[in-house]
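Hey, can you fold this one?
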Amino acid sequence: MKKLTLILLIFLTFNLVGCKNEKDNGITVTDMAGTEVVVPSNIRKVAAVSPSTADLMIAFGLGDKIDGVYKTVTDNEWATTLYPKAKDFYKYDYDESAESYFSRGVDLILLPDPTTVASLRTSGLTVLNIRQFASGSFDNYLFTFSEILKQIFPEVTDKVNAWQSRMNNALNQISDVLQNKDDKPTLYYIYGDKLNSRGSHLAYTDMPNSFVASLLRKLNVKFVSDNFTSNRPSEEEVLQTNPDIIVIGGIYQKFLYDELLNNDTWNKLDAVVNERVYNIPVGFAPFEQNSIESPIFLYDLANKIYPELFNYDIKAITKETLQFWFDVTLTEQQIDYLLDGLSPTGQPLVTVK
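Sure. Predicted structure:
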C-alpha cells in the first residue's frame, strides 16, 4: 500500500511540474483592454480579425502566421496586390463562433470587441483585445500592438523598432514645425471603411479616443468629433460645426465624396466651398488605421492641411515604404491610383448599387 501511495505521489508531482513548466513556457502580455493574457510561446496560426493587425504582421515578416482576417479586408484589391498570399486568407466575421476557431486550429485570436473577446475566452481560446480606440486617449497606445508582437515573436524586434522609429520621426518633424502655430483649423473626418446603416452615410466618424483622432491632433487641428457623443452623430450636429476641412477615408471614399458634393445641404459647408475636402489613401489597410502606412498618413495630411509649411514627396515616400515593408515595387501609375483612393486599375475600390 505504501509503495502504491509513493508511486501515485511521484505521478502527481511529475504531472504538476509538467503543467507548471508548460504554463511557464507561455508569454504573458497585456492587451489593449488592460487584461493580462498568457499566450502560447510557439504561435503557428493567428486569426488577425482586428482592423490593420494583418497589415503590420505581414510587414514585420509574420504573414505566414496569419490564418485569416476580417471578411472584407481582402475585398480591397490593394491587399492582394501588396501581399498575394492574402487571397488564401480565411474570411472571419467579428462574431465568429468558438467552434470555427477550434476547427481551424487557431492559436491566437486578435479581436476589437471586448464582449466577444470575453465570450471566446470562456471557451478556452487565447484572445487579445486589439482595437483602433482606447478607454482614454489613444496617445499611450500607438505602439501597444507592435510591442505585443515583439513579446510574442522576438525575431521581429528589429523590424518593429524600425517602424516605430519611422512613426516617431514623422510625429516629431511635424510637431516641431507646428508647435508655435496658434490657429487651429477645424476638421471633420468621415469614416468610409463601411457605410453607416443607421443614418446619413456622411454622418459617420470616429470618436476622440480613436487612433485617427490621436494622429489628427498631432496635426494641430480641432477635431470636431470631440463634441459628439457618438461616432454616428446626427446630420444637424455635423453641419453645425461647419468644418474648415473634411477628410474622407476607407474603401467607400469615392462614393462618399460624390455624395458630399451632390448633397445640396452638405455642399454648402466651408470645407466644400473652399475646396478643402481631401481623401485618405488606402493601401493594404486604410492609411488612417494603425498600420505600416501611418507615417505616410501624417506626411500626406501635413501637405494638404498646411501647403505653405510642408512639401513632402508623398509619391516617393509611398513607393519606398511599400517596397521596404512588402517587397513590392509599384508603378508610378499605381502609386497615383493608391494615393487617390482608387484600385490598382484606377477604379473605385467598391461599387455601391
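Residues 1-24 have pLDDT under 50 and may be disordered. Let me know if you want another pass with a different chain boundary.
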